[in-house]
Amino acid sequence: MEEERATINRERLVNSFRELVAIDSPSLKERNMADELTRRLLALGFSVREDNAGSRIGGNSGNLFATLRGGDALPPLLFCAHMDTVQPARSKRAILENDGTIHSAGDTVLGADDVSAISAILEAVQSLQEQRLLKRDIEVLFSVSEETYGTGAAVFDCSVIRSKEAYVPDYDGAHGQAVVSAPTILAFRAEITGKASHAGFAPERGVNAISAAARAVNRLKLGRVSPGLTRNIGTIHGGLLTNIVPDACVMEGEIRGEKHEKALRLLQQTQKAFQSVCDAFGAGLAFSSKCLVQAYHTPADAAVVSRYFRVCKAYGHKTEAVSTFGGSDNNILAQRGISGIVLPSAMHACHSGAEYTTVEELCRLAELLAGLMQT
Q1: Does domain 187-293 bear CATH number 3.30.70.360?
Q2: What is the pTM of this model?
Q3: Rounded distance, CA 34 to CA 31, Å?
Q4: 227: Cβ contacts below 8 Å, ≥ 6 apart
Q5: Which CATH architecture has domain 10-182+301-373?
Q6: Backbone angles phi, psi at 202, to 5 degrees
Q7: What are the tens digits of pLDDT across the range 163-221?
Q8: For FRET with 79, which of 66, 126, 341, 355 sits at 20 to 30 Å CA-CA?
């Protein structure tokens, strides 16, 4: 990277991160975060619009899409991060230790997933502006409800995006890694209807829905079905009292596959297994499913990857193309024809009270994002 490197304002970045962490923004309740980010984006000169995602998915805020004129020397790029955090997410506090570690009080998540990305994007833009180094238009998508399988980004009108390439900082990894593929995630629900009867006086008159469910699960290989393919039963509900043959049982699960077609085939096999057992028991079956996110694969030699690797090498980071078995907003963007990768975003032990980041990693993230914006 031959361009002059931007100098990141370390103190401002840390303060911004801590201020944003303090804003409650659980999934579907991102209103306060959206209002504050709108204010900050406008102060940086962005044009900001909010869509109607909130009303469409049952939340109180829409996705924020912001554009900044930075010049036509380079094509525009999209930077995407999500505004929501997983629970427990109320009254979060970012505690800064002397060694530069930042963690929560332990009774909530920290929210570095994904406030680290948001604060780094804002700092990268501001530093480039102050140092007159911004040479391209920047587009920013701050999404809602990413933690609920990207439901906010899924209803966003991507036709307004000019960028052909996107960077999505939302990964627990080392700087220099680029997530180039992620799986299809399918959710399924099997509702088994049996026949109630007294468990002591007339058990033979009943059809035990729980027993049918157990038989079906016993036929299914759970966990890692094969390389790049998993299946799980996550919940089971059924029965009223111990003296009643249960006439209903509901099971819910998921399938993940690095190949979309393989995930769909395993889903069909799962439904057939449930149907076969229910037929044998004389029970009814209502089987439903939903594709939460669809798999993507960005070629390791794609321009969006090459640019990131050039910037990382300029800052001394070892580069590596990796895969993940989790979904992100990039799954959605890829389905809309935007070539993107997910980046490590200075977050660790996410989705737990042990979540943390460090000042050093936040600054490295902001530097890399600034490098991408000017390369």
Answers
A1: yes
A2: 0.93
A3: 5
A4: none
A5: 3-Layer(aba) Sandwich (3.40)
A6: -145, 60
A7: 999 999 999 999 999 999 999 999 999 999 999 999 999 999 999 999 999 999 999 99
A8: 355
